[in-house]
Amino acid sequence: MTDRPIVILTALDLEYQAIRKRLLDPELHRHQHGTRFEIGRLSNSHCRLALAHVGTGNQSAAVLAERAIAEFAPAALLFVGVAGALHSHIALGDVVVATRIYAYHGGTSEDDGLKSRPRAWETSHAADQIARHIGRTDSWTRGLPDAGRLPHVHFGPIAAGEVVLNSKVSGYARWIQQNYNDALAIEMEGAGVAQAGHLNGAMPVVVIRGISDRADGTKEVTDRDQWQQRAVANAAAFAAALAEEITTEDEDGGWQATKTTAGGPGMRGHEVTYNIAGGNARVGVQAGIVHGGIRLGFEPDRPTDLAEALVRFRSQLKRARDDGHLDEDTYAAAQAELGVAEEALQTKVPQSKGRLTLALKKLRGLISDVGELATELAAIIALAQALS
């Protein structure tokens, strides 16, 4: 188990307080530009949380999510708060965990009407699997007030926009019903944090919302009946259980990307665990059963100097973009992380190696779907970790 924190962000103060009261001895952590985080451990847990209040809206959520990721290099980022339900089977107080986030305000206005051009981000498979496992049990509800009915956990898309929806018949309501009918809930920050996660090497982001109203014109009544407080207490309880489980799984600082499966024509898939050699050591093959031919050694044309390898990798990134293997957003984010790595390599301070390795790992998350780039980057990471 590593000590990487889980970052939790909230939009409202009551959401912040629901998380904060679960922390033991929270300590203030000031970012150089003024953002205040509180860091503490969950009660009866090894899980360390970094908590911040970001205010409402996707823009502020995106900026401060990016800031939190850069500051803490967390194992995951959770956004916890309240939302309005978009379907009648979801009860007040239930919890919705996003499987996909829609930025639903994207569109183009034409003569025959407004055409939807949404952006969407999927929740990572590993995080989704852990959340579903927790949702199948009632253990996460321990300590919640007995209200006669345990809150249910729903998994599905969430729509994130820039306005509070409190109507079933307004133009916004009809727009969402027409174009995002599978969305279970609506809120105002999920798209921002999802984008920040995407631009930081597929940083695992999970949006967890307690249902405090039905987005149907009755919000004043449900707020007066304190459904916000009840809903966020339920969301906070689920988020705490999820954070603890992720921390437990994060044994080596890379809970999502430590293993892969090898396979090919006529070959069963086999689990492969990567081993990185330190110092002057080199590992040829470490395996149980190996099927097929084996070639030992290092490719003669692959640079052994880290600076040269980074220059070569920059050219390979551009070629992958030109060939259509990387989209523009991913390419830009990968270029930025590569720039951070190059700068860290040139800066001779004690923190340089950590910054270099972190940038390369974020880069790995961005290009992991492109096989040749992933193979090349694995060798570069090994060179970086061998630095004295």
Automatic annotation (TrEMBL):
Origin: domain of life: Bacteria
GO cellular component term of the entry, any: cytosol
Classification via SUPFAM superfamilies: Purine and uridine phosphorylases
Provenance organism: Microbispora bryophytorum
Protein name: Nucleoside phosphorylase domain-containing protein
GO biological process, one term: nucleoside metabolic process
Gene Ontology terms for molecular function: adenosylhomocysteine nucleosidase activity; methylthioadenosine nucleosidase activity
Pfam families linked: PNP_UDP_1
Residues covered by the Nucleoside phosphorylase domain: 5-242
